[in-house]
Amino acid sequence: MDEELRAAAAPAPDAGGRGSGRVPLSTKVAYGTGSVAEGVKDAAFKTFLLFYYNQVLGLPGWMGGAAGAIALLVDAAIDPFIGSMSDATRTRWGRRHPWMYAAALPMALGFRLLFDPPSGLSNAQLFAWLAFFSVVVRCSMSLYSIPSNSMVAELTPDYDERTSLLAFRYLFGWTGAVAITLLAYLWLMAPGAKLADGLRNPAGYAPWSAVGACMIGGAILASALGTHRLIPGLKAPPAHQPFSLARLRGEIGEALGNPSYRTLVVASVFASVAGAFNDVFGLYLNTYFWEFRPEQLAAFVPALVVGVTVGVVVARPISVRFDKRHAALALATAAILVGPLPIFLRLAGLMPENGSARLLSILVAHAAFMVACAVSVGILIGSMISDTIDQNELLHGSRREGIFSSAIAFSAKAATGVGTFLAGSALDLVHFPRPSPGEAPPPIAPGQADALGWIVGPGLFGLWLVTLLFLSRYRLSRAEHARILEELERRPAVA
């Protein structure tokens, strides 16, 4: 029976012996489904979490930013442990799936409690609640995402099929993000008796987080169960080695010694700082800088759907046509030039007036373009990381899928913590008002909305420019990857 399962799960051999690399549609769907959980978590953390604690519960911005940074740094610190343990796990359920199954319940429960703290907590107690349950959610997510990400390089060696596999992951991730955002704007955060703006209504966040928790737990379990049959065909763990810090240091050093991988890690650091900075400020900009109402914010959801669809559809064709590196550089350059442009134009007095339908149309189109670029670049970078795993096998005779996934996650999360802290601190720097719990916020002072624009626009441009500079140093092309696979074919199989 094990032999039959292995034959069904393994790629069909080609002339080279390493497999055709084609991944069935059913496998891509099952693999991608779990990213719904990541999308729900990312949308909640990036868009709503700091806003909820700062503008709804009245927690100072620097405390919200510090709690987020602490959670991310703790999460980032354990990522290499999870990656190393995932690589070395030996069970009848393989080395990835036990961790994936273990993540579902704590992540769902932690997400639910994060958005429903007990009433009457002091600022210090709110800070502790936010930090603790943020750690629970983020670390539980890592238990799923690192082993799941590690499966990409195991499922196929094909240069373009990996891009397709990552496209499904992004498609389902953004589906989760769009769904939970739409629920927030149109249903669960409806206005209350005292608050005309439903986003500041604390009663809406508890049922909203309950729906999100169900989506998270269900998606993780569906993905783990849907890919369970593939376990016999995945890579076997290396010979058993007891875990030690020395072994972990050696594995991380081996990964970071790869120049191609190292450039992606550094680029990811700056991209993550920029992404967190922009995401945290996004709701503040839309609410105070552009002065959109919650029902107008819902108009951005179709733009997200269009942007995600375009980004997923074009990722593989442009990779085939232009190579991953060139495609990623072109899309990143477009995003850098277009991303902060509306803010600069508004500060120069060249945008339509707030409240106009023309302004909303322009920014909705801008959001669709930016999402399409971000999705395609993310897919391409994820696929490029999988290619560096093959390069590492050629250089060192070992495959470190878990370590490679965890090291990039470590840098991204640590940097996102920095971005979150900077954004929270910037709110206090410009003395941005925060309300008492359950009350409408006081009006912002003249110039404070423009201050947000002057922080976000130039900040994003600089951070993304540095990202582009490091991404341009990546050198692993299609031809070089094909040569690596040919070299590996001529070697004895790695135990």
Structural class: mainly alpha
How many domains make up the coordinates? 1
CATH T-level topology: Growth Hormone, Chain: A
Low-confidence stretches: 1-19
Helix content: over 70%
Question: How many E-type strands?
Answer: 0
Write structural notes for this entry.
The chain is mainly alpha-helical and 495 residues long. It has one domain: Up-down Bundle (Growth Hormone, Chain: A). 74% of the residues lie in helices and 0% in strands. It is built from 18 helices and no strands. The chain has helices spanning 2-9, 25-33, 35-56, 61-88, 97-114, 123-155, 159-188, 205-226, 245-256, 259-289, 294-297, 300-322, 324-338, 341-347, 357-396, 401-429, 448-471, 478-489. Helix 4 (61-88) packs parallel to helix 6. It is globular. The relative contact order is 0.16. The model is unreliable at 1-19 (pLDDT under 50).
Outline the fold blueprint:
Blueprint: H1 2-9, H2 25-33, H3 35-56, H4 61-88, H5 97-114, H6 123-155, H7 159-188, H8 205-226, H9 245-256, H10 259-289, H11 294-297, H12 300-322, H13 324-338, H14 341-347, H15 357-396, H16 401-429, H17 448-471, H18 478-489
List keywords for this structure.
disordered N terminus, 495 residues, Growth Hormone, Chain: A, single chain, mainly alpha, globular
Q: How would you summarize what this structure contains?
A:
The protein has 495 residues and is mainly α. Helices cover 74% and strands 0% of the residues.
